[in-house]
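Methods — Computational structure assignment.
A single polypeptide chain was analysed. Its primary sequence is given first, followed by the predicted tertiary structure written as structure tokens.
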Amino acid sequence: MSSPAARSITCYSKIPEFLVGTNGQPMPAVGLGTASHPFVAEDVRTSVLTALELGYRHIDTAGLYASERVVGEAMAEAVSCGLVASRDELFVTSKVWCTQCHPELVLPSLKESLKNLQMEYVDLYLIHWPMAVKPSKPHFPMKREDIVPMDLSGVWQAMEECHRLGLAKMIGVSNFTTKKLQELLAIAKISPFVNQVELNPTWQQKKLIEFCNDKGIHVTAYSPLGGQRISKLNPVRQSDILEEIGKARGKSVAQISLRWIYEQGASMVAKSLKRERLKENIEIFDWELSDEDRFKIGQIAQRKLVTVQNLLCPEGISSVDILDVDVIEI
């Protein structure tokens, strides 16, 4: 039986690509995440170069991560030494942070990202979080009293301008619930191509995936292996069900999780500094889960790790309803 994802994918390289948007623009099924806490430039550089050597072509960064400059330098090195034929082979995602989520700051923020990346365009530019904070350098945790009402219409118009100028081949969002997507679709002239959200077998996002599929919005998973730093608990890697399936199939827990995401029709960005893990994470395309495996995964208890509370200082009072800027699908 072919996977649901396979019917909407064309293979151009070792890593399959989803066709995204009405024009069917290709987006690799697996990419490398570069969020790192603490940030160590040489680790990120090595990870990017190793990933590119292994066949990765999607590198995910953001203004918040402080990794754009080293990502750009590593990609330029990869092209200059022939590891990658040209910039055209690469797929680069970056994001505008809450402190720049103001209509007049979106385009300057993207231009700053492009300067750091040493590139003329990004393939995908995302609103990182559905929240606006008083203008400042990207940072977190952020003060609750600095949250301000977000001009979603104005911010999205600025995102559309980034697209029209050719500085972002595709535009989209991250951490948007169905409610936030409905608000956006009501005012958008260009619909978001992508919604990047927390997604893995322990946070399955069934309602959101169904909504996005219906609206033609591609879903990309972050924290596909349970995330880092947010909590000492990693529900994916510590899942008895995923471990049981992995042992029976001769696969790692990570591979079972990534394969499950792929079979939902979603792409993913996964972070690793280890070559063997990077290689393992893309060895998920020549096999599939069984119906029994999928049923068992469907029974896993759900736990969301990333919420707005992770971004905010515990003290202080916001004039904006915190629930309105959270990303828990209800």
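Note: Residues 41-54 form the longest helix (14 residues).
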